[in-house]
């Protein structure tokens, strides 16, 4: 991720690639060691178990998200909110990112059974909802947004984007993408304009901007475009 | 499910209970046989592999959902939509339903890798979005809803409710519920009125009704309550 990565960064990058390639249930310490060119015994020196390493990885991913969110803390509130929405948009060719989020979704299903994983999921949930709430609060103060129920709006926005992402990644085939795209891309109608169908996340992100964000903008405030939002949060690093 | 269940119904009920108890990754044909008091060889006579049985189970669950949706096809459109929204609400004590949906979420993570599972997921997605689109179309025709982009609204509503459910079930502890509830229930504020925090799905369902459904109601049409929606779809059978 950075130019001279630390050993810890290299290991985390190995977890990221191993999860993408093998999924959560099947990934082994050996797979991770192979992906980061470390020995398995070195990994075990730092992390007793696969669970320890995966919890450390979740911590790393969430810490990275915190830093990305912080980097945009001074953007104007409407742009910040569009950036947050755009962050969840996957294009149809984002195969690596999809594979990673499928592995994360597998990890999330362990939440009820594994307190350490659940602690990280709760932390992530607080970060995401807290970020939207913070954007809304500063935007209300700045006169960008109307007075709204900040916590309710935050829960709504986060659930909506998470649901769109889950649906997109689970409905698209990893191996036979052509056929799966045409199955899952939309409502069974070929696009009349010859453009590709928007992905599930793009369609829902567009809808969320117009149906949830636009109605809470103060009089005269323009709705930022989804494209600008996608650019601001996503383009610098596709690892999230 | 019915009073004199068929062998197939008994097996599907066994799958349901075995998935709840063991999860998707760990469940075995023996677990399922135990839960429905059949022999493992009888199960193998009907279903070659665990995958065959789980695909048949997905088919069964979706067919059941189709029937439930059909049973409400003649309800007034606004009530139907509130019923659809209410269908996703889990109360904090719905432990069996949560365990089942965690297993379903595990199954969903197999979508990219397993075409037969993915076919069922795509079918479910079409059913859910198609149902909302159908409700909206008939409601626009009946003068209940304003003219809206039906497909966009359907994708938005389904993603929102799915996301809320995923967040609720993954953030709540299966074993140490007391502590998990207080962690995941809300925004860290104790409820001022002494009532329990609403669950994630209830909070988002309330928000979806007021923020997504209410603005598309035609002039003078009253928003049905979430409680009425929950009653209409959920109470008769807690299996889905």
UniProtKB/TrEMBL annotation, chains A, B:
Organism in which the protein naturally occurs: Halorubrum yunnanense
Any keyword Membrane?
Answer: no
Q: Which PROSITE patterns match?
A: HTH_TETR_2
DNA-binding region (UniProt annotation): 28-47
Q: What is this protein called?
A: TetR/AcrR family transcriptional regulator
Name all HTH tetR-type domain ranges: 5-65
**Care to name a GO molecular-function term for this sequence?**
DNA binding
One Pfam entry for this protein is: TetR_N
* UniProt-listed PANTHER family: HTH-TYPE TRANSCRIPTIONAL REGULATOR BETI (PTHR30055:SF234), HTH-TYPE TRANSCRIPTIONAL REGULATOR RUTR (PTHR30055)
Mind listing the UniProt keywords for this protein, alphabetically? DNA-binding, Repressor, Transcription, Transcription regulation
The protein's superkingdom reads Archaea
Q: Which InterPro entries match?
A: BetI_C (IPR039538), Homeodomain-like_sf (IPR009057), HTH-type_TetR-like_transc_reg (IPR050109), HTH_TetR (IPR001647), Tet_transcr_reg_TetR-rel_C_sf (IPR036271)
Keyword Transcription regulation part of the UniProt annotation: yes
Query: Known SUPFAM superfamilies for this protein?
Result: Homeodomain-like, Tetracyclin repressor-like, C-terminal domain
The signal peptide stretch is: none
UniProt cross-references to Gene3D superfamilies, sorted A to Z: Tetracycline Repressor, domain 2
Q: Where is this region: Disordered?
A: 172-201
């Amino acid at each position: 991720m950075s130019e001279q990565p630390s050993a810890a960064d290299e290991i985390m990058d190995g977890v990221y690639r191993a999860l993408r390639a093998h999924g959560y249930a099947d990934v082994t310490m050996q797979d991770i060691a192979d992906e980061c060119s470390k020995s398995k015994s070195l990994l075990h020196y730092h992390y007793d178990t696969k669970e320890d390493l995966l919890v450390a990885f979740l911590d790393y991913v969430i810490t990275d998200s915190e830093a990305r969110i912080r980097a945009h803390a001074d953007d104007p509130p409407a742009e910040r909110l569009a950036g947050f929405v755009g962050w969840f948009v996957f294009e149809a060719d984002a195969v690596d990112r999809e594979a990673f989020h499928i592995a994360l979704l597998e990890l999330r299903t362990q939440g009820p059974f594994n307190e350490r994983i659940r602690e990280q999921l709760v932390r992530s949930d607080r970060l995401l909802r807290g970020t939207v709430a913070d954007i809304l609060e500063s935007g209300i103060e700045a006169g960008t947004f109307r007075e709204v129920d900040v916590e309710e709006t935050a829960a709504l926005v986060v659930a909506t984007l998470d649901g769109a992402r889950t649906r997109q990644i689970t409905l698209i085939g990893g191996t036979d993408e052509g056929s799966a795209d045409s199955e899952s891309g939309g409502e069974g109608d070929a696009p009349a304009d010859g453009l590709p169908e928007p992905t599930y996340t793009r369609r829902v992100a567009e809808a969320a901007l117009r149906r949830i964000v636009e109605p809470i903008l103060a009089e005269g405030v323009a709705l930022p475009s989804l494209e600008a939002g996608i650019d601001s949060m996503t383009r610098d690093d596709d690892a999230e």
